[in-house]
Design the sequence.
C-alpha cells in the first residue's frame, strides 16, 4: 500500500506552515484539501497560500475551478488521485493538507460518489425554506455530512439534502483505506484558537479582503454565488450589498468561523490518528 501524509485540523491552526516544513524535510509535495481554495480568485478570504509562502514546495489543486460554477467532491477526488499518482511517480511524498474533511475522505477512503441528478422540484421547494430549517433537515438526514458542512452555505445544504433524500447518505463512505496514511492533526485549546481566528480575520481585512470580494463581483461572480461560497465571502457579500453593517459583518463572521472550526473538530474525531 502506497504511503501518503495527511495534515488536517480546524481552521487557523497553521496547517499550511506545518505541511511546508514537513515537505521540505522529507521531499514532499502538497495537495490542498480546501473547498474554497480550488477556486480562482478566492485568495485572501480563503487564506490561499502565496508563491512566496510556498517556499518552492510544489502545491496542487489550487485555482483549478471557476468561482462561478460549483466544484464537486467527485471532481476533487479525480484531480487529487491524478496528483498523487504523479507525485509518487516522481519519487516524492504526497501530503494532503487542509480542513475540508469530505475532500480528505474522498482521497483516503474507498468512497463512492454516485451520480445524483438535480431534483428541480425539490430545489424549488428547498429554496423557499430558511437556512436554519435546511440545517435541521440535513442534520436529521445525515449527521456525518452535517458535521462538516458550512451551515450558512445554502447551495451546499440544498445539494446535500438532495443527495441524502435520493441515497440515504451523503455520500456512502467506506472505512477501507486506499493508502497507508500518516496522520498529523493540529489543534489548540478553545481560547487560543478563538484568538487565532480573531487575529487572522483582522489581518485578512487589512490585506484587502473587501476589495477582493468587490473585484470578484465586478468580474461576474453574482452576489448569490458569493454568499453560497460561505464564511468570509458570504458575510462580505452581505456587507457590500448593504444588508449588514461592517461591525455586524465582523462579529457574525467571527462567530461563524468559530462554529465551523467546532464542526471540523467533530468531523476529524472519527479518524484513528
Sequence:
Amino acid at each position: 500500500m502506497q504511503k501518503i501524509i495527511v495534515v488536517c485540523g480546524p481552521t487557523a491552526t497553521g496547517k499550511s506552515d506545518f505541511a511546508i516544513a514537513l515537505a521540505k524535510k522529507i521531499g514532499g509535495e502538497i495537495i490542498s484539501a480546501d473547498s474554497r481554495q480550488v477556486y480562482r480568485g478566492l485568495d485572501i478570504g480563503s487564506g490561499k497560500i502565496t508563491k512566496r509562502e510556498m517556499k518552492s514546495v510544489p502545491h496542487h489543486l489550487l485555482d483549478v475551478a471557476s468561482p462561478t460554477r460549483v466544484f464537486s467532491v467527485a471532481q476533487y477526488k479525480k484531480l487529487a488521485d491524478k496528483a498523487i499518482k504523479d507525485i509518487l511517480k516522481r519519487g516524492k511524498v504526497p501530503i494532503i493538507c487542509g480542513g475540508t474533511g469530505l475532500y480528505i475522505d474522498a482521497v483516503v477512503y474507498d468512497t463512492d460518489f454516485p451520480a445524483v441528478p438535480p431534483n428541480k422540484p425539490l430545489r424549488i421547494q428547498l429554496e423557499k425554506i430558511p437556512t436554519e430549517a435546511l440545517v435541521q433537515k440535513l442534520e436529521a438526514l445525515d449527521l456525518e455530512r452535517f458535521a462538516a458542512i458550512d451551515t450558512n452555505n445554502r447551495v451546499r445544504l440544498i445539494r446535500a439534502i438532495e443527495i441524502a433524500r435520493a441515497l440515504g447518505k451523503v455520500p456512502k463512505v467506506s472505512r477501507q483505506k486506499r493508502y497507508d496514511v500518516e496522520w498529523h492533526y493540529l489543534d489548540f485549546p478553545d481560547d487560543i484558537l478563538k484568538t487565532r481566528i480573531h487575529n487572522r480575520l483582522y489581518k485578512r481585512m487589512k490585506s484587502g479582503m473587501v476589495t477582493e470580494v468587490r473585484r470578484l463581483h465586478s468580474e461576474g461572480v453574482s452576489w448569490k454565488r458569493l454568499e453560497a461560497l460561505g464564511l468570509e465571502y458570504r458575510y462580505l457579500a452581505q456587507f457590500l450589498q448593504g444588508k449588514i453593517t461592517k461591525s455586524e459583518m465582523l462579529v457574525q463572521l467571527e462567530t461563524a468561523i468559530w462554529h465551523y472550526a467546532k464542526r471540523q473538530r467533530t468531523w476529524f474525531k472519527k479518524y484513528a490518528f
